[in-house]
Amino acid sequence: MDATIVAVRVARRPEASRCRGTLCARCAGLREGNCVDRFFKISERGSTVGNEVIGGLTTFLAMAYIIAVNPLMMNIAGMEFDAALTATCFGAAAMTIAMGVIANRPIALASGMGINAIVAFSLCSADALGVDWRVAMGVIFLEGIAILVLVLCGLRKAIMEAIPVNLRRAIGVGIGLFVAFIGLKGGGVIVSNESTYLAMGSLTSPIAIVSLVSIGVAVVLEVMRVKGSLLISIVAATIVGIPLGVTTVPTELHFGLNFATFAAPFQIDPSSQTLAIAQVLVTPALLMFVFSLLMSDFFDTMGTVVAVGDQADFVDKDGNIEDVQPILLVDSTAAAVGGFMGASSITTFVESTAGASAGARTGLSNIVIGALFVVFAFFAPIIGMVSASATCGALVVVGYLMLTGVGEIDWSLPESAFPAFATIMGIPLTYSITNGIGFGFVSYVVVKVAQGKIAEVKPLMWVASLAFLLMFIFG
């Protein structure tokens, strides 16, 4: 009986003897698959290649609005739209793939909302500092280098661990309100008013109609859990905007790349005829922006990583992130790379939670996302049709998604509640992520001192709060 079974088994695999010299296609495929599995630890984390691909597609569809939004922001700052699109896509692709390969976490990166608004409306706007976009990218580049140094020294990780969990969650909520406000303002739903500062715009204007369509489609598809709901809302609103005159149809199509913004910090600033980065180094106001953006970039990642980690199972019950150092290393490098490429600061995206919810657990999903960003870099004329009104719905829904953390804040404790409130309100009302974070830090220390709980404030919180206080006084 046993001899018969052995004979049958040998007969059923005659290819075994033929694979000793060279691998057949089937065996080579298996070996390659196992190699991918081992490298990304797919099976070890309870995932599959199919889950990673689906997760990557889901994350890309959730964050694809940045392909339209960031070039628009950078165009306001003075860049050519095509060049800004190339920088946005290649920057996102490079750093998302780097996160997948180095940190092996399903965390995608792209040009950050909020900081690109600071570049457009605070650094480059004629109503503010009015610097050239190359100088602004020099500010971003230096800020990224500074954060990278702090990561290599272990300081960023230490400060992350020193910040109370409730304050971490409040930062994400405040940014969500800020992003939604930017969308509504750009879409003409909210306008300025001399008496009340803000008011509702004319909802019958073409710009507002397109905005309302984008919001309606985004919300309906989001609650129906349709994958790619934000991207679909942008496409639908863009089409509606054509007969209304809001969408600009390109007169010619060219599907090339424009690398004019690459090495931006080391290009010549036309106004001063000096290197853009040198202009930053000799201007105190710009150095203050380096510090301000550093503080903002320094902490923005924290809430995003915790949110993704909750979905992808690499954050414990106390909010501690497993193997956080490689994540911070890639994120910090991304800020400098964004400045170098002219894409604004590249950072982790909270929309990565969508992919994690869809099953992504490893960096393989990042390879999928990176490849898609490269493909879309060639479609500048089509992406250029997208108006601020068309992206309004995407920004509003992103803001809504980021507000989910408000329920996790302990509002019964003053040392948690008031600093969280100060952070959440400070970010949108001052139009500054940095200011809101600073309000939260300083108020946290003040409340702790008032309660006689000075010993509970960690040393690095004292240092960070003092830095914010000095920024408020001298900024």
Automatic annotation (TrEMBL):
InterPro entries named in the record: Azg-like, Azg-like_bact_archaea, NCS2
GO cellular component terms given for this protein: plasma membrane
Main location group: membrane
Localization terms from the record: Cell membrane
Transmembrane spans: 53-77, 83-102, 109-129, 135-155, 167-191, 197-221, 228-246, 275-294, 367-400, 420-447, 459-474
Coiled-coil region list: none
Keyword annotations of the record: Cell membrane, Membrane, Transmembrane, Transmembrane helix, Transport
GO molecular function annotation: purine nucleobase transmembrane transporter activity
Membrane topology term: Multi-pass membrane protein
Pfam families (alphabetical): Xan_ur_permease
Family annotation (PANTHER family): XANTHINE/URACIL PERMEASE C887.17-RELATED, XANTHINE_URACIL PERMEASE C887.17-RELATED
Family from the record: Belongs to the nucleobase:cation symporter-2 (NCS2) (TC 2.A.40) family. Azg-like subfamily.
Protein name: NCS2 family permease
Species of origin: Berryella wangjianweii
